[in-house]
Design a protein that fits this description.
With 495 residues, the chain is α+β, with helices and mostly antiparallel strands. It has 3 domains: 256 residues, Bira Bifunctional Protein, Domain 2 (BirA Bifunctional Protein, domain 2, 2-Layer Sandwich), CATH 3.30.930; 66 residues, no CATH class; 93 residues, Anticodon-binding domain (Rossmann fold), CATH 3.40.50.800. The protein has 15 helices and 25 strands. The protein has a 7-stranded mixed beta sheet with strand order 3-11-12-18-15-14-13. Strands 22-21-23-24-25 form a 5-stranded mixed beta sheet, with helices on both faces. Helix 2 crosses helix 11 and helix 3 packs across helix 9. The longest helix has 20 residues. The two termini are 40 Å apart. It binds one RNA strand of 75 nucleotides through helix 1, strand 5, strand 20 and helix 13.
RNA sequence: GCGGGUGUAGCUCAGUGGUAGAGCGUCACGUUGCCAACGUGAAUGUCGUGGGUUCAAGUCCCAUCACCCGCUCCA
C-alpha cells in the first residue's frame, strides 16, 4: 500500500513536471480543456520526435529489409469494411441496473444460453432505433435477469464528411489504425521498390478511436500516434519472424534506457486472440498509475494472411458498394474467390516458383505511450545537500536538448566565447544557451529537462582554452579543450 | 456511463459569506562566481465555466467542463 501511494504520487509528479517544463499540456486548456486530448509543448515535441526517430532508425534505416510509407488518414470506406473495423467498431451496449456492469447487447444470452446473433452489417443508427427485448437476458456479471437499461450506441470510429458540396458528400472514417494503409499499398510497394519477401513496410502516424473510456494522462487517448510495421513473409516462416520481432522490439526499449524490471512480455491466451491472429504478445511497461499496472506499450501479432485476403475480398466488393448507393451498411463483403491464392495481393516467389498470400508479423507500438514510458522511467528525484534534485535520465538519443552552453558569469568575454561555441554546436546537436542567473540553478534546470551535458566557459578558458563539461547523472565535472568539445560530445551522444 | 475525489498566480497549496494570499518559480538590477546562494524590486488571477441565493459568493445551491481514483470497456 505504501508502495502504491508512492507510485501514484510519482505519476502526479510527472504530470506536474510535464506541465511545468512544457512537455505536455491539456488540449484547448484556455477553453476548459477537451477530454482525452493533449498537446506536446516545446520540450515534449522534441522528446516525441526523438522517440519517432529512434523507432524509424531501428526499424527502417538500419535494416535492409524494411521500407517506409506515409499514408493518408482518410481512406476509401471499403478499407474499413474489409478490415472488419466498420462492423466490429460499432456496438450496442447496455448497463445492468443492478450491478452497473456494462455489456454488449449482442453478447447477452438468455437463461437458455441463446445469444443474439451478431449481425455483420451494423448500421448503428438503425440498430439503436430498433427495439431490443432484453427482458429475458441474463447479466453475465451478477446473473440478474432483464435488469438492463436502454441500449446505448457506440461509434468506435470517428466519422467525417468529404466534399464541400452538401449533395455529394461522402462519409469517411478517420483511420483507427495505420496498418490498413500499409496493406492497401502492399501492391504499390511491391511493384515499385524491388523488395523481395521477406520484407516489411513501416509507418508512423496518427490514428483515432472513440474509446469508451480514456485513461491516465496520455496513456489512452482518442487521438494517438502509432508506429507500425507490417512484415511480410512466406507462410511457414512466420513463427520464426514472430520470434525475431519480439526480440528486436523488446531490445529497442531497453537499448533506449527502459529498465528491464519495468518491462515484460505478456503472451495472449489462445481464447484471447483475435480470430485472425495466430499469436500475439504485448510488450508491457509497469506504469505508476492505477494499481501500479502493467500496461501495453506495443502489441506484436502474427496476423497470418488475413488482411491481404480480406482486401482481395474488398477489392471485389467495389461494384456492389457503388450499386448500393455507396451505403456501407447495405452490403456485405464478397465471398473469397476460389483462386484467392493467386489474387492481386499474392506474391510470386521466383526461387521456389510458388505463388502465395504472404503472412504478416505486425509490431504495433504506441508512440505516445512509449514517450510516457520513457518519461516515467527516466524520472528521478534524489537528495543533494538537503535539496531534492529532479532529473530526467533520458538516453542521449531521446533527450530533447543534448547540450547546454553557459558562460560562468556574464562578463570578461565569457558570454562571447560561450555564444560562439553554442553557434557551432547547434548546427549538429539540439543545444541551449543560457547566461542568466546562478550557474547551479542553470545546471538544475537542465537536469529537469534531461539535458545530458552542460558546457561552461569560465575564467580558466581564456588561460588554457579548456571548458568545464558537467555530466547530468553524476554531476561530475571534467575539463575539455574548447576545440575538442564537439568531438568529445560526438563520442558520448552519437550512440 | 456509474460511484468517489479534485479544480484559487507558471507550479504546490492556504483562504470562518465581508479588501485575492503564501512558498517556490519567472523577470529586472546589484552582488557572488561551479550545483535550485544572497539583497532589492517587479510582473502574474475569467478563484475551471455558466446560472442562482444574498446587501455581499473563492466560500452556499444548481448545472456544466476538465483531471485523478475505482468500476466498466478495450483493435
Amino acid at each position: 500500500m505504501v508502495q502504491r501511494m508512492a507510485q501514484l504520487a510519482k505519476l502526479d509528479d510527472i504530470v506536474a513536471l510535464c506541465k511545468r517544463r512544457g512537455f505536455i499540456f491539456q488540449s484547448s486548456e484556455i477553453y476548459g480543456g477537451l477530454a482525452s486530448c493533449y498537446d506536446y509543448g516545446p520540450l515534449g515535441v522534441e522528446l516525441k520526435r526523438n522517440v519517432r526517430e529512434a523507432w524509424w532508425k531501428a526499424v527502417v534505416k538500419m535494416r535492409d529489409d524494411v521500407v517506409g510509407l506515409d499514408c493518408s488518414i482518410l481512406m476509401h470506406p471499403l478499407v474499413w469494411k474489409a478490415s472488419g473495423h466498420a462492423d466490429k467498431f460499432a456496438d450496442l451496449v447496455t448497463v445492468c441496473k443492478k450491478c452497473n456492469t456494462r455489456s454488449r447487447v449482442d453478447h447477452l444470452a438468455d437463461h437458455h444460453g441463446h445469444a443474439e446473433e451478431h449481425t455483420e452489417h451494423v448500421d448503428i443508427d438503425k440498430a439503436a432505433a430498433t427495439p431490443h427485448d432484453l427482458s429475458r437476458k441474463v447479466c453475465p456479471a451478477c446473473g440478474a435477469v432483464g435488469q438492463f437499461g436502454a441500449p446505448m450506441a457506440f461509434r468506435l470510429m470517428f466519422e467525417t464528411q468529404m466534399g464541400a458540396n452538401v449533395e455529394d458528400t461522402m462519409t469517411l472514417f478517420l483511420r483507427p489504425e495505420t496498418a490498413q494503409g500499409i496493406f492497401v499499398n502492399f501492391r504499390n510497394v511491391l511493384d515499385t521498390t524491388r523488395v523481395k519477401i521477406p520484407f516489411g513496410i513501416a509507418q508512423i502516424g496518427k490514428s483515432f478511436r472513440n474509446e469508451v473510456t480514456t485513461k491516465a494522462f496520455i496513456f489512452r487517448t482518442r487521438e494517438f500516434e502509432q508506429a507500425e510495421l507490417e512484415f511480410f513473409c512466406a507462410p511457414g516462416t512466420d513463427d520464426e519472424w514472430y520470434e525475431h520481432w519480439k526480440a528486436e522490439r523488446f531490445r529497442w526499449y531497453t537499448d533506449l534506457g527502459i529498465r528491464k524490471e519495468n518491462l515484460r512480455f505478456r503472451e495472449h491466451d489462445p481464447d484471447e486472440l483475435a480470430h485472425y491472429a495466430k499469436a500475439c504478445v504485448d510488450v508491457e511497461y509497469r506504469f505508476p498509475f492505477g494499481q501500479g499496472d502493467w500496461q501495453e506499450l506495443e502489441g506484436i501479432a502474427n496476423r497470418t494472411d488475413y488482411d491481404l485476403r480480406q482486401h482481395q475480398r474488398g477489392m471485389r466488393t467495389v461494384n456492389d458498394w457503388m450499386a448500393a448507393g455507396r451505403d456501407l451498411t447495405a452490403i456485405g463483403l464478397k465471398e473469397e474467390a476460389e483462386d484467392y491464392l493467386s489474387g492481386p495481393l499474392s506474391y510470386f516467389d521466383e526461387q521456389t516458383r510458388q505463388r502465395f498470400i504472404p503472412y504478416v508479423i505486425e509490431p504495433s507500438a504506441g508512440v505516445d505511450r512509449s514517450t510516457l514510458a520513457f518519461l516515467v522511467d527516466a524520472y528521478d528525484e534524489e537528495e543533494v545537500r538537503g535539496e531534492v534534485r529532479n532529473v530526467l535520465r533520458f538516453h542521449p538519443a531521446l533527450a530533447p536538448v543534448k547540450v547546454a552552453i553557459f558562460p560562468l558569469v556574464k562578463k570578461d568575454g565569457m558570454p562571447e566565447t560561450a555564444r560562439a561555441l553554442y553557434d557551432d554546436l547547434k548546427r549538429r546537436y539540439a543545444s541551449f544557451y543560457d547566461e542568466k542567473g546562478a550557474i547551479g540553478r542553470r545546471y538544475r534546470r537542465q537536469d529537469e529537462a534531461g539535458t545530458p551535458y552542460c558546457v561552461t566557459v569560465d575564467g580558466q578558458t581564456k588561460e588554457d582554452g579548456t571548458v568545464t563539461m558537467r555530466d547530468r547523472d553524476s554531476m561530475e565535472q571534467i575539463r575539455v579543450p574548447l576545440d575538442q568539445v564537439r568531438t568529445w560530445l560526438s563520442e558520448k551522444l552519437d550512440v
